[in-house]
Amino acid sequence: MSESMYQSIHFKSKGRATTNASKPEVIAKMKEIVGEENVLVAPEKVEPYGADAVKEKFPPEAVVFPENTEQVSRILKLANEYLFPVTARGGGVGYTGGAVPIEGGIVIGTDRMNKIKEINVDDLYVVCQPGITTYNLQKAVEDYGLMFPPDPASYKESYIGGNIAENAGGMRTPKYGVTKHYVLGLEVVTGRGEVIRTGGKTVKNVVGFDLTGLMCGSEGMLGIITEATLRLLPMPEATATVRANFKSMEEACKVLTKFTPEGIMPMAMEVMDKYCIEAVEGSFAFGLSKDANAVLLVAVDGSKEEVEKQAKIIEEIIKANGGFDVVRSKSREEENKLWDVRRAISPSLNKYGDLKINEDVVVPRSKVPELIKGVEQIAKRHKTFVANFGHAGDGNIHVNFVCNRSPEEIARARACVKETFELALKLGGTISGEHGIGYVKAPYLDMAVDKSTLEIMKQLKKVFDPNGILNPGKMFT
To answer: Is 429:367 a contact under the CB 8 Å cutoff?
Structure first.
């Protein structure tokens, strides 16, 4: 699909596509598999499952809620028999349309597959189904003094299965890495309907190809995750967060590389610009300074002594590099309030326009100031509003172009997106850090991945899903 063709269909609601999934005998067989009450077909019932955070609607013909791996396998075998599309869906909070059934067919909702099967304190792992939210999983293991580090901002809504399929990151990435670093093993139903197991319960495992790693970030195009074995860590004794204001985003971002020479690896380093500050303050009245053009949040964890020492050094570094109104949390409650500001940004930005295009480009950490400056110039050149925030500690910035839904404004915003991708690549980065590709970024994939590598990806897709049943219309357009 050319970019011009893509733009002509993008940001429009779609009518309901019709495939073999809507045949009466197919609907009847799906009801036999999962029970009549677990199959939705009424238009008003399935419509909510046809969109994600992008807000474009592609209603499926049916939504099916399996309870176990066997039921998922039977559904996919049925899909191969009748040749209709199947799209797996978790919390539906993605920004690239990865869980949206753009070619119709059915949506498999994993809501009923939300159980924790085992928490092993001795060997530091948890076995769970894909439909549990990240938040609920974290709370469950915390009761055992353990920690599951990945924490995307949508952690209260996003499901573990979706986090694995998108290889979600989050705010603790600088120190702890992304979701794939905590996936030990998976149970997956391939596009053929076959059940396979990858990895296991051990940290070391080099038996055969790394199919576990392959599934992380595969966006539901190779298989549907039905069980995950996840690595856990001991909960740190203490944490602390430092928040500071700056006169500019460039000034705030330049501080990011100042902690490493002091032997400090912060758990999180988040930044937000003046428009984000205005948005969250207008929506929630957190009491943020009107004099700030940027806010930097830096968090550390470890022993009480270590955290106290590092937090003091971080305060000194920030003050020496232009930070003012520096605040440090003294309790977990205070710390949570500081982070509430960061989690409130994305929904608050809707005040600036009808349409928010949230892109998550990533560059080497030292290049973040240059990225921010370049994005602001791009937006100014195309007369488009932009707000920047995100995981500055790992170079993953959420660039939000906000406009109204007029053809002219959308065209200008899309031009900004393309130039932002070009800038990120020029700076040694890439076009997505954690949101994935889906259908939204599909036209730009060949900017970041060479032709030979793309061909290998397509061949892998055919091996796992020869009939193209799973999540069609994504990534390879």
So the answer is: yes
Task: Please list, residue by residue across 164-194, b when 16 or more beta carbons sit within 10 angstroms of its beta carbon and e when fewer do.
Answer: bbbbbbbbbbbbbebbbebbbbbbbbbbbbe
Q: What is the DSSP string of 365-401?
A: GGGHHHHHHHHHHHHHHTT-EEEEEEEGGGTEEEEEE
- From first to last of its 477 residues, the chain has per-residue pLDDT tens of 333 333 333 444 556 678 999 999 999 999 999 999 999 999 999 999 999 998 899 999 999 999 999 999 999 999 999 999 999 999 999 999 999 999 999 999 999 999 999 999 999 999 999 999 999 999 999 999 999 999 998 999 999 999 999 999 999 999 999 999 999 999 999 999 999 999 999 999 999 999 999 999 999 999 999 999 999 999 999 999 999 999 999 999 999 999 999 999 999 999 999 999 999 999 999 988 888 999 999 999 999 999 999 999 999 999 999 999 999 999 989 999 899 998 899 889 989 998 999 999 999 999 999 999 999 999 999 999 999 999 999 999 999 999 999 999 999 999 999 999 999 999 999 999 999 999 999 999 999 999 999 999 999 999 999 999 999 999 987
Which two structure tokens, joined as six digits, stand for 29? 């067989």
| Residue appearing with tokens 């396998």 | 73
CA distance 165 to 163: 6
Strand spans (E) along 194-293: 195-199, 223-231, 233-234, 238-246, 268-273
Sign, Cα dihedral of 57, 60, 62, 64? negative
The domain segmentation of the chain, as residue ranges, is 13-235+450-477, 238-330, 353-436
Helix H or strand E segment including 90: none
Interatomic CA distance for residues 366 and 356, integer angstroms: 27
> pTM for the full model?
0.93
DSSP 27: H
Domain 238-330: assigned CATH number: 3.30.70.3450
| Fold (topology level) of 13-235+450-477 | 3.30.465
Strand ranges in 247-323 using DSSP code E only, listed in sequence order: 268-273, 294-302
CATH number of this structure's domain 353-436, picked from the four choices 3.30.70.2740, 3.40.720.10, 3.50.50.60, 2.40.40.10: 3.30.70.2740
Residue 399 tokens read as: 């660039």
**262-301 in b/e burial notation, b at 16+ Cβ within 10 A?**
eebebbbbbbbbbbbbbbbbeeeeeebeeebbbbbbbbbb
